Amino acid sequence: MTSKKRVVLITGAESGIGKSTSKIFLDNGYKVICTYLKNNNNKNTKDIEYHRIDITKNKDWENLALYIKKKFKKIDVLVNSAGVRLSGNLETTSMSDWSYHLNNNVTGTFLACKYILPFLKKAKNSSIINVASINSIRGAKNMLAYATSKSAIISFTASLALDLTKNKIRVNAVAPGAIETPMLASFKKDLSLKEYQKRMRENHPIGRVGKPKEVANVIYFLASESASFMTGLTIPVDGGRSIR
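RESULT FIELD:
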């Protein structure tokens, strides 16, 4: 039997933006399916469940798709939140690092959309929300592979939106600035507290870094009927960094 509740699938939901997004959808009455790769301290309940998959692996997606087909039949919203980031410029970025970013940030998003599309087609008013980065709009020093891979998400989002209008499936993206997540913490540890705070004030006119919930709120909006006339867009959620 098809789930009577709306169903959302969120990749990379064990922490950060993905975790906050799962909570917002759960609080708004959705059945929530989350994927994670490594550490997950969250518990399954009747309305939220966690599946360990490698988003770059076809076989993992095949298995999850079979599970969704059996239990839920449809997916109303897909949120591609999983991603990776390493520092590096042209001279210091290895081929392995380059492939790591493209495989996780681009191929992982592609595979998620490819395997979940049949379930999105079975739902009404379905949508996909991808997570890009403000660095994909502005560029970023010493983050060549990351910024490049996230730039691909913007083009992917716009092109997929055009392809899926015939199916009445909307596709949009968010481009977060600096958000208090484990990914940002890895960058923060390389700086003194004073230097870190100085950079954040300089980069963000609002004068602080963002909270995961502030991005999750925009993701939920893009999935809602309030955004029913929006598709193919990438929305900065960056404390004004894109206008600096």
